[in-house]
């Protein structure tokens, strides 16, 4: 059997002066190779972050056929209801 397959890395202990320095400056260890691949748990969200009142686009009606703010709200409500019905049916 080859000796190459038996090679492993053992991380040496951190010197005391480095430990004290890191503690003094408030150093935090970054992610390791194993923890980098773990996906953080995101809060459950319906994905409508842009529906906050202060983040809504400005509605400007220039011509007779343009959508008004009320029509946009109605369309958004219909889309939301359709998504909810779709998700409910496909459980």
TrEMBL record:
Pfam family, one: DUF4604
Lineage: superkingdom: Eukaryota
Biased composition (Acidic residues): 43-56
Residues covered by the DUF4604 domain: 5-81
InterPro entries per the UniProt record, alphabetical: DUF4604 (IPR027911), KIAA1143-like (IPR040219)
Chain positions covered by the region annotation Disordered: 28-57
This protein's name: DUF4604 domain-containing protein
Source organism (scientific name): Neotoma lepida
